[in-house]
Amino acid sequence: MKKIPLNMQTFSELITQNCVYVDKTAHIYSLITSGKTCFLSRPRRFGKSLLISTLEAIFQGRKELFVDLAISKTDYTWPIHPVIRLDFGIIPHQTPEELRIGLCNELYEIAKMHRITLERTASPGELLKLLVRELSSKNQVVILIDEYDKPILDHIDNFEIAAQCQIVLKSFYETIKGLDQFCRFTFLTGVSKFTKTSVFSGLNNLNDISEKALGALIVGYTKAEIEHYFADHLKELVDHLKKSPEEVLDLIRQWYDGYRFCTDHEVARLYAPLSVMYCLQDRLFKNYWFATGTPSYLVKLLKNKNYDLSVLEKFGPLRASEAIFGIYDVSSIALEALLYQAGYMTVQSYDSETNIVEIDYPNQEVRTSMRYLLLSMKVDLPDVNVRPAVDDIRIGFLLCDMHKVEYGLQTLLANIPSQHHRPDESFYHTLFHMITTVIGFATSSEDSTHTGKPDLIVQTKDRIYVIEFKFNKSTGQGMQQILDRRYYERYRDLGKQIVLVEITFMYQNKRIQVASAAQNLD
C-alpha cells in the first residue's frame, strides 16, 4: 500500500518513496501548453508547492518520474529547460533590505548550480536578467515562483514595511516581462492578489487562472480522486470506524469538502488535501485546518482592521460583488475578499445578472476553525489558552456535570485581561453562545416560546439545556424565571432529558456560578 505523503512537497521524493500521488498532470499539461505567464492563488496547504515541484520536474525533462501518469500519454516531448525556482517562504524578509539581499543571494546560488558566475549587483532584477540571458544559451528558461506574496503578508500589520517590500518585489517582477523572448514558461503562486499598480504592474501579460477552468482542479482533491487514489486507506478507515463506505465518505465530505474557486456550478467541489490526508492517517475526524491552515496575516488583519466581526459571529453566508475575485491593495481589502482568499469562505452561488456571489464556510472543519478564531479574539487569548477551558465545558455538558462547566467558564474568564471585560450581560451572553457553537452543540439564542424567550438553548445528543443568564444578580433569580415562565415546555416532546441552568456572573470580582436542575417537570 502506498504511503500517505503528509507534508511532502517535492514531487520526485513523493514518487520515488512510493507515496500516493493524485495525478494532476492532465491539468498541468493543459496549463503549460496554453500560455507562457500564469498566476494561481489558493489558500495555504492546498498543494501549490507540490504543483511548483511537479512543474520543475516536467521542465527538467525527468520523464522517468511520470511513468503511467496522464502527461505520459500525451504528445509532450520532454525537452530540458533551465529552471529558476524561487520560494519566498524561505528567502529572508524581516526588512526590505534583507529581502533584497536574500533574493540576490538566492539568484547567486541558482547561478552557481548552473556553473554561471554573475556580476555582483544590488538589484535582484538585474541579477535575474543576467541569469536568464546566460541560461537561455542552453534552452528557453522556466521561472517558477512560490509564495510570491509572503514578504508582504508577513508584514501586513505594518503597512510601512509591507509597502517597502512591495516595492522590492514590484521592481523584481517587472523584469520578468522584458525577458519574455528568453522564457518558455513563467508561473507564480500565492495566497493573495495585489493590485497590478503595485506588485504586478509590469506583468500585464500575466494570465490569472485562479478562478478560471484552467486552474479549477489543478490543486485540491475531488471526491473521485480520493476514492481512486486513497482506496486502500479509505478501506482501513472504514474498518476502523466500523461504518459503511458511504457513511465514511459522507463524513469526509461534511468535514473537508466544499471548496469552489470559480462560479461555474459544473465544476466539482474540492476537498482540503492536507486535512484529508491527516484524517486517513490518524483515522480520526477532527479540525486540522486551524493548526495547519490559518494564515497569520488573516489573524492580524481581523484584529487590526475595523471590520464588522458581528456578521461573522452569525456563522452564515455573506454576499459580495464578483470583485472579490479581483486584485487588492495592500492597505485595504474587503472582509469578504479576505475570507475568500484565506480559504475560510468559498463560492456557494453566483447570480450572473447581478454579479453577486454568495460565499460561505465550505465545511464543518473551517466553520469550527472560525469559531475558535473569533472566540480567541473576543477574549484576547491565544488558541492554546482557549481550548483546554472549552474542552472542560464540552465534557461538562456531555456528562451533565455543571461543576465542570463552571470550572471551564471560570478558567476562561480568569485568563481574560481585565480591560477586555465588559460591564454588561450581552458581552458574556455572546461569549457563552460562541463557546457552545465552537464545541459543536446545536445552539439557539432567545428562542421564542409561548411565555417568552430563554437566553440560550443548548442541545446535546441526550439532553436539552434551557439556560438563563443573570448579570450582577443574586443567585436563584435565573432559575426562578425559567420555572415561572415555563421555558422548558416546548421541548418536552423531543425525547431528551431537560436540564434547567442558571449562569450568574458578578462583574466586580469576576466570578461565575452555574446552578442546574434536571428533573421531570410537570
What's the arrangement of secondary structure elements?
Blueprint: H1 11-16, H2 25-32, E1 37-41, H3 48-59, E2 83-87, H4 96-113, H5 124-135, E3 141-146, H6 150-153, H7 159-178, E4 183-190, E5 207-208, H8 213-216, H9 223-229, H10 231-241, H11 245-256, H12 273-282, H13 289-293, H14 296-304, E6 318-321, H15 335-342, E7 346-351, E8 356-360, H16 364-379, H17 383-399, H18 402-415, H19 425-439, E9 442-445, E10 456-459, E11 463-471, H20 477-485, E12 497-506, E13 511-518
Parallel strand pairs: 1-4, 1-5, 2-3, 3-4, 11-12
Antiparallel strand pairs: 6-8, 7-8, 9-10, 10-11, 12-13
Describe the structure.
This protein starts with 10 loop residues before the first helix and ends with a strand. With 522 residues, it is of the alpha/beta class. It is elongated and about 90 Å long. The strands form three sheets. Strands 2-3-4-1-5 form a five-stranded parallel β-sheet. The mean pLDDT is 88. It has helices spanning 11-16, 25-32, 48-59, 96-113, 124-135, 150-153, 159-178, 213-216, 223-229, 231-241, 245-256, 273-282, 289-293, 296-304, 335-342, 364-379, 383-399, 402-415, 425-439, 477-485, and strands spanning 37-41, 83-87, 141-146, 183-190, 207-208, 318-321, 346-351, 356-360, 442-445, 456-459, 463-471, 497-506, 511-518. The longest helix is centred in the first third of the chain and has 20 residues, at 159-178. The chain has 20 helices and 13 strands.
